[in-house]
């Protein structure tokens, strides 16, 4: 009823009463079912009675919502046919209808979720059963069939046992076939080894026979080798003598070439040292002349700059420069009277320079 009081606030009392009388039944029912929906708790798949109650309640509320929607639509249709001042009331009824629809749909949704708890629970159980059965059957999977094509989650225990037995039987047959092929391979390997042994014995006999013939051949070759070695030794001695004579000739020539090269090297070295000495002396003279010329040029430039600066300076500056250059050279005397006279002269000279500077400043 609080919702009705909110939406009818500001309406004339008579119109507000019409709205309240028309819609109070639906709002009261929604309030009653709000607590019923909250109290209906389903946690086990065997609560079939509670799930049935949820379904019946959802259908009842749906019927109430449809009835309210029809009532509101009828009222709104009548209001729309009124004059323009009834538009506000039309919007009120629209808002009320929206609130009722939202409220009832929420209650219906909650009940539908409770109603279908069993379906969701069954799906979870079937998925768990599918994973467990896949774990049982995978060790016997030969990769021939697609395991995802089997409905392990929904098939009966008898069907799964039959399927598992089929996989096991196929696995055992595959193992037996593999063992049979292995035995065949082992038999073929034994026959191959026997044949290889026969061939090896034949080859051994041929080898012994060939070795005997080879021994005879080696003896003949040995005799021929000794004759060849004797001839080779004679040839080696002859070549050694020729090589020794050639080596002596080459050594003698190398000694003579080395002597000539040493003499030429000493001569070239002496000429090079003499040339380097002359070049160094000439370089030193040129460097000294360059330094003297640069020094002379710098002094001339300095004097010229000083003269130019002095010529351009004001008379006052020239006088000050002239006075500042006046000085009394230091004099070392021992006699007391001479020291006194030198001191008096120096003092009066400094006084003269101060007086002269002051006179110049007056210009």
Description of the molecule:
Helices cover 85% and strands 0% of the residues. The protein has 363 residues and is mostly helical. The chain is flat, with a radius of gyration of 67 Å.
Overall morphology: flat
Radius of gyration: 67 Å
**Could you report the average pLDDT, rounded to the nearest whole number?**
81
Order of helices and strands: HHHHHHHH
What does the largest sheet look like? none
Tell me roughly what share of residues is in helical segments. over 70%
Q: How many E strands? A: 0
Q: Ranges with pLDDT <50 over ≥5 residues?
A: none
Total of helices:
8
Instruction: Report the structural category.
Output: mainly alpha
Rounded to the nearest angstrom, the distance between the terminal CA atoms is: 117 Å
Please state roughly what percent of the residues sit in beta strands, choosing from under 5%, 5-15%, 15-25%, 25-35%, 35-45% or over 45%: under 5%
How would you sum up this structure in a few lines?
This protein is 85% helix and 0% strand. It has 363 residues and is mainly alpha-helical.
Which structural traits does this protein have?
mainly alpha; 363 residues
Describe the SSE topology.
Blueprint: H1 2-7, H2 13-39, H3 48-80, H4 87-115, H5 117-137, H6 157-312, H7 315-325, H8 336-361
Helix pairs in contact: 2-3, 2-4, 3-4, 7-8
């Amino acid at each position: 009823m609080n919702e009705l009081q909110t939406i009818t606030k500001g309406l004339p009392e008579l119109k507000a009463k019409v709205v309240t009388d028309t819609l109070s039944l639906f709002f009261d029912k929604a309030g009653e079912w709000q607590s019923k929906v909250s109290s209906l708790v389903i946690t086990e798949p065997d609560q079939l009675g509670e799930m049935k109650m949820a379904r019946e309640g959802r259908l009842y509320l749906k019927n109430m919502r449809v009835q309210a929607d029809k009532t509101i639509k009828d009222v709104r249709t009548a209001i729309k046919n009124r004059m323009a001042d009834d538009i506000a009331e039309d919007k009120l009824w629209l808002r009320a209808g929206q609130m009722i629809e939202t409220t009832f749909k929420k209650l219906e949704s909650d009940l539908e979720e409770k109603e279908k708890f069993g379906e969701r629970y069954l799906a979870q159980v079937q998925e768990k059963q599918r994973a467990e059965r896949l774990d049982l059957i995978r060790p016997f999977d030969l990769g021939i069939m697609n395991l995802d094509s089997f409905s392990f989650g929904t098939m009966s225990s008898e069907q799964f046992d039959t399927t598992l037995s089929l996989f096991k039987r196929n696995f055992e047959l595959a193992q037996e076939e593999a063992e049979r092929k292995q035995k065949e391979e082992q038999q073929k390997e034994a026959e191959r080894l026997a044949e290889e042994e026969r061939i090896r014995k034949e080859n051994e006999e041929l080898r012994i026979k060939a070795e005997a013939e080879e021994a005879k051949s080696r003896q003949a070759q040995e005799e021929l080798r000794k004759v060849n070695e004797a001839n080779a030794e004679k040839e080696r001695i002859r070549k050694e003598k020729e090589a020794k004579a050639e080596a002596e000739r080459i050594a003698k020539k190398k000694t003579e070439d080395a002597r000539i090269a040493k003499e030429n090297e000493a001569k070239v070295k002496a000429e090079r040292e003499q040339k380097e000495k002359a070049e160094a002396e000439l370089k030193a003279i040129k460097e000294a002349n360059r330094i003297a010329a640069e020094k002379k040029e710098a002094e001339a430039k300095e004097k010229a700059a000083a003269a130019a600066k002095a010529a351009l300076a004001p008379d006052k500056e020239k006088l000050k420069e002239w006075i500042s250059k006046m000085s009394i050279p230091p004099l070392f005397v021992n006699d007391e009277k001479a020291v006194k006279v030198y001191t008096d002269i120096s003092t009066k000279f400094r006084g003269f320079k101060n007086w002269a500077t002051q006179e110049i400043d007056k210009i």
